[in-house]
Write a structure and sequence with these properties.
By secondary structure, the protein is of the alpha/beta class. The protein has helices spanning 2-5, 28-43, 77-87, 101-109, 145-149, 163-174, 203-216, 232-237, 248-266, 333-336, and strands spanning 11-14, 48-51, 73-75, 117-119, 124-126, 138-141, 179-181, 278-283, 287-293, 300-306, 312-315, 322-328, 343-346, 354-357, 361-367. It has ten helices and 15 strands. It is globular, with a radius of gyration of 22 Å. The chain starts with a helix and ends in an 8-residue tail after the last strand.
Length: 375
């Protein structure tokens, strides 16, 4: 409450709630929920509680009256894992239970990928279904402080994959039916590492942190030495290179993110976060088609992703007689910073028609039932 009331923070993210145990008759989560709601009434402004949870259980975001914890949203790690392994195939070493396109489709339509299945990493069945829960209850991301800071080299996604895959990942994130989170510098593909660093004063705590990091990286022998988290140079190496945002390819990536955000904020389809109006269809293990629509069904979007290095084709659904391309990641705009162009694709009848996708690309089409172009 101190952070909300004194510092005027809008929302709090609670770390690793699965490792916080309370068997009280009235749990800390019930108290936190009620205190937050009381403060909302007193201040007249909305306050948000977000959880990082490893439980894959929807009770985290359900109301306390029905046995839930009452969080407004939770981080959706499964979305990250499913997408990351497809964009960066070497990620399979870290996330052995991910890598199938059907899992990414499930992350889009349901939320939790592991919802009761046996999970090799955990050596047991894990999770419960989150199907039907509105997208505004989940926070999705391509990287965060854990995913980057827990790598021995502190590599951001932009240091692991090329710019075409960076654009794919950004579109997959920002065109999703969830609340997107961008890690600092991600919007322009900053090339500086991000290491785990601390500035403690207790010598015993400092040594405990150092020993913990040594143990964590023991299995990465041959990948180089890890950086001392207490050394100030580790912190300095992690600082952003802000000037890159205006430099060539980095600027194009920044413009790509800006355009995606504008599309998300202004197109009526993206205002609908209900799973009832959303479909995700895999194209083998190479691509994915997202079909989104407004609540009243008057406007439709097709978001087509080709994660492979070969051309793909897909069928349009039998809705609308004309589709207009409103986004193309292969356009030169996102390489040289020029202005994006649009292309109309006229189709008639109700039979299936093929759309072609270049390698490593994302295309977005709008149904003629309601043309819309961001200003």
């Amino acid at each position: 409450m101190f952070w909300f009331e004194i510092y005027h923070v809008d929302g709090l993210r609670l770390d690793a709630i699965h490792a916080i145990f309370d068997s009280s008759a009235e749990s800390v989560w019930q108290v936190l929920y009620q205190r937050t709601k009381d403060l909302e009434k007193r201040t007249g402004r909305p306050l948000y509680l977000t959880a990082e949870s490893d439980l894959n259980n929807p009770f985290v975001i359900k109301h306390p009256d029905i046995g839930g914890f009452g969080f407004d949203a939770q981080w959706l790690d499964d979305f990250h894992h499913a997408l990351y392994v497809i964009i960066h195939r070497e990620g399979k070493e870290r996330y052995e239970d991910f890598g199938a396109m059907e899992q990414l489709a499930k992350a889009y339509t349901d939320g939790f990928v592991h919802s009761g299945e046996f999970v090799t990493f955990r050596r047991r069945k894990h999770g419960a279904s989150s199907a039907g829960i509105s997208g505004h209850h989940f926070i999705v991301f391509n990287q965060n402080h854990d995913q980057v800071g827990n790598r021995i080299g502190g590599e951001r996604l932009s240091m692991l994959v090329d710019h075409e895959r960076i654009k794919l990942g950004a579109a997959a994130l920002l065109l999703s039916p969830y609340i997107p989170l961008l890690f600092m510098g991600e919007e322009y593909a900053d090339s500086s590492p991000f290491f785990y660093f601390v500035s403690h004063s207790d010598p015993q705590l400092i040594e405990a942190v150092r020993e913990g990091r040594r143990r964590e990286f023991e299995r990465f022998k041959g990948a180089g030495d890890h950086h001392d988290p207490q050394d100030e140079s580790t912190f300095n190496l992690s600082k952003l290179n802000w000037q890159q945002a205006e430099d060539g390819p980095h600027r194009a990536i920044c413009d790509w993110h800006k355009h995606l955000i504008k599309l998300r904020k202004t197109h009526p389809v993206f205002q609908n976060l209900s799973k009832n109006h959303f479909r995700a269809t895999p194209i083998n293990e190479d691509g994915l088609i997202l079909h989104r629509q407004t609540t009243d069904g008057s406007q439709h979007l097709l978001c087509a992703f080709n994660f492979s290095e070969k051309e793909l084709s897909f069928h349009r659904p039998s809705v609308g007689k004309c589709w207009k391309k409103i986004l193309d990641s292969t356009d030169s705009s996102w390489s040289d910073g020029g202005q994006a162009h649009q292309e109309s694709v006229s189709l008639s009848g109700t039979v299936a028609y093929n759309f072609e996708m270049p390698p490593l690309s994302v295309l977005v089409y709008e149904s003629a039932q309601g043309h819309f172009t961001p200003e």
